Amino acid sequence: MNCLDRYRSKLLTATNRDLRAIVVAPEEHSIHRFRVGIKRLTALYRFLGIVKPEIRARRILKPARSLSRSISKIRDCHITLGLISELNDVDKDLLAILQRALKAKIRRDYRDFQTLAKSDIKIPLRLPTVDSMGLAESRILEHKPEALRQLLNGISTASHQSTDVDWHRARILLKRYHHTLDAFCRCPGQQLDAREIRQIEMLARLLGDWHDRVVAVDILHSFTELDHQAAPVINELNRQEGLLLGSARIYLQKFMRWKTSTQQA
């Protein structure tokens, strides 16, 4: 489908532009955009792999996802820096100590990323076009509803009894669902439902803010020599984490009820 290839081409160009910038310096916004680009490309190729199982999406995406996993360590530190700087009533000396530890970790992780980027992984990233994979438009459109339904089923399994790992998986599937819808936005007759997008974005924001705090707490715990000093910061992030996940649970139920009602209408 030409519409999916146009989406793929524009997305890959932007992602490679950010990748080239990241190799020069660990700039926060470029890292964020690069990781979002890889997630969007992952959603597209995973969907195409459902349409045609002979397409080995994981193998196609392996170089890109390897780079993304490496740079994600730096992105997590950027997020943690932002979160601790927003906290009220934090001792300034403690804040300075944590900031120095995080910036030192960024420097170490960035050296590892540069080593990986300059080894056997080719830059710019190259991914096959939709047309080159021999996928008929009718076949793609035929499989789209079932692929989206599978993603929704995975999202809906999160519940009050779910672990952090379960909620993280639901968050990933929600993003993949959203990105799959976005991939078709240039295709005739495949317009997005603005009501659904608003609800997805709200739920994604809640789960994203929750996961940011989960990651930040894990990073702060990794500074074992500072674990005791960082306890007030960790406790506050844990408190926020609980509130956000509670809100996400409520909103997920609301979204799934709405989705079920629209599908039955």
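Next protein, fold it too.
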Amino acid sequence: MASARLTRHIRESLLKKLITRAFQERAQDLVDRSAALAVEFYEDALAGDLEAIRALPRGWLPTDDDIKVYVAGDMERLCFNGSMGNGCLTPTLRQCGAKEASPELATNTGSFRRPELPFPAKVRGQCVKQYEAGHPMEKRLTDLKGEASDFETEVTRATKTAEAAMNSVTTVKKLIEVWPEVEEFARPYLVNGEQRAILPAIPRAELNAKLGLPPHEREVAGGTVVQ
């Protein structure tokens, strides 16, 4: 049998598995802590209004998916979905398999697509509060941003190293020979590797549950489902 070629699709699929395995837990932790800190800034900046805000029925106040504050002289946009100031997760965080923070990290989110919190109309979209350098909240934000930057650098370096290793060979078999520690992840691509790499990962368990699959034996007669 001819050795399976290490195609671009296989390289990308294999790299995704390796990076997710190595970094997903830490990436998700960063996202969740970023979301939690954004909510803390919200609760601190609007402390004087929180009681009145929470006393109103949901839907009475405008909502937003971030809060803007001045921190050490710079305007910061802190998103309740954990994406810091980007609005959406960085490519590196997505590559690691991280997801936007759960709406449960915020309160009164209702059915919004992203975590959103209510704001008094006069301050929605505005910088709500200023934090001087050295303030405990400023230090926590600075530390978290530094941690996130270091993490992105670490993932980028690991990605480039793995890519270099995979680009140094042309077949899956040879990759396993020169990098035996990756065999568990590379072995499935030895047969029909290109097909395995490009097929979408369907939510099989969820689909089966919703569609009642597989069918019960008594539903099937002569190879067709009995209506």
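About the second fold: The helical segments are 8-45, 50-55, 91-95, 136-167, 172-178, 183-186, 193-198, 204-211.
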